[in-house]
Amino acid sequence: MSQRVLTALPVYNEAAHVEAVLDAVLGYCPEVLVVDDGSTDGTEGLLARRKDIYCIRHPKNLGYGAALRTAFRFAVRQGYETLITIDCDGQHEPQRIPDFIAARTPEVDMVSGSRYLREFPGDSPAPEDRRRINRILTGQINRLLGLRITDAFCGFKAYRVAALAELRITESGYAMPLEVWVQAARLGWNVVELPIPRIYLEEKRSFGGALDNPCARLVVYQQVLQRSLTKYPARKQLLVSEKGASSGRQFLHPAHSGMEHITVSEKQGQVPCLGFHSGLFGTFSTPSRPSCF
Question: Could you confirm whether domain 5-126+149-211+237-253+286-292 is CATH 3.40.50.300?
Answer without folding.
Answer: no
